[in-house]
Amino acid sequence: MSVRALAPWCAAVSTLVALAPAAASQPAAGASPAAHAAQASQPTPANCPALLQHTFPRLQDESPQSLCQHAGKVVLVVNTASYCGFTYQYEGLEALYKKYKDRGLVVLGFPSNDFLQEKSDNKDIADFCYNTYGVVFPMFARTAVRGSDANALYRQLAQATGKKPIWNFNKYLIDRSGRSVTHYGSKVEPQDQAFVQQLEALLARR
């Protein structure tokens, strides 16, 4: 699928913010029992930045996954949906993950129905992502990403950048230290030149 041209006003709007250390947050109100169980299932490694001190159920089987396993990587967090005009971005996100994962990139997908464009069943979402776009980057069970029910990670990301998701495929790019976050809107595609340049700059830092 070809990359769609972006108008100048669609260029990346970046907000870099230093994150102060904080204790791991609890699951949001209304979170599923699996999310609550996942949060309490694993201890927090001493070298895990505060932003990654969360555990979420995996999309395919709701097995608890600690984000601390990605400490030291550049992390791209994206809220996704199956019926959105931006759903085609799955293809670009997967291509980005395959190209840069050996250099330290991980893409984390968080399906959400906050904008009424996601399937209701996690298995259906997983099957759609894999069968349609070949997605193998880590994805998590359907969750809220904005408002009072937003999960703990998304609350921190919104606080850090001052930018809440206003649509699907909103992007947060986190550096290796887990302390700086850059926000990109939904219209910024995974192959956008400015976005890729920023990503490569973060990957080059050790």
Automatic annotation (TrEMBL):
Query: Which SUPFAM superfamilies does the entry link to?
Result: Thioredoxin-like (SSF52833)
Recorded GO terms, molecular function? peroxidase activity
- UniProt-listed InterPro entries: Glutathione_peroxidase, GPX_AS, Thioredoxin-like_sf, Thioredoxin_domain
* Segments forming domain Thioredoxin: 14-204
Recite the UniProt keywords alphabetically.
Oxidoreductase, Peroxidase, Signal
Q: Which GO terms describe its biological process?
A: cellular response to oxidative stress
Active-site residues (renumbered): C84
Leader peptide range in chain numbering: 1-20
Similarity remark: Belongs to the glutathione peroxidase family.
What is this protein identified as? Answer: Glutathione peroxidase
Q: Which organism is it from?
A: Melaminivora suipulveris
